[in-house]
Amino acid sequence: MDTPCREAERSESHLIRLKATMAKCEEGYLCDVCGGDVEAITESDLYLRFVIGQIDPETLHTTRERHLRCNPTLAQFIVDESFEPVTVEGPFDKRKLDADYVARQEALVTRGWRRLAEVSHQPELTILEYPLPEVCEDLARRAGS
Ligand SMILES: [Zn+2]
């Protein structure tokens, strides 16, 4: 059975854009904040936001790359024993935010980060297959419309 993302790939224009995206990504990116190399996908703020549905595949290659840790307002929501916790000082500190919102963000962002760890071991996947299942479904729906 096909996954929603495989269906999305069938659209030819989508595939062309995807190839352009992949070619760009192979060049590697420098962090927009600290200027260092973003070496692993699990360090990438860009890909984390992509897998949780905050960035469209079409804009992936035009969006600036950053280290996850260089975007602490997002990284603070990763709660995993293999991720050293990030804290934010100031108004975006999650300890000062609405508890329900924080719980939802932690669930989503942590799943997204674990997904990045997963796809980093699956070179056969295309970029369109990286996102979380509900995000893939949404992409497939939009590609078909
Ligand atoms: Zn950085």
Secondary structure topology:
Layout: H1 4-10, H2 12-26, H3 45-51, H4 72-75, H5 99-119, H6 133-144
Helix pairs in contact: 1-6, 3-5
The structure holds zinc ion (ZN).
Zinc ion binds at residues 31, 33-34, 36, 66-67, 70.
How many strand units?
Answer: 0
DSSP summary: helix tally: 6
Mean pLDDT: 86
Give the percentage of residues in beta strands: under 5%
Largest sheet: none
Q: Describe the global form.
A: globular
Question: Keywords, please?
Answer:
globular; 6 helices; mainly alpha; 145 residues; binds zinc ion
Structure notes:
This protein has six helices and no strands. It is mainly α and 145 residues long. The chain has one domain (4-137). It is globular, with a radius of gyration of 16 Å. The two termini are 21 Å apart. The model has no long low-confidence stretch (mean pLDDT 86). Residues 31, 33-34, 36, 66-67, 70 line the site of zinc ion (ZN).
Question: How would you sum up this structure in a few lines?
Answer:
The protein has 145 residues and is an all-alpha fold. Helix content is 46%, strand content 0%. It has six helices and no strands.
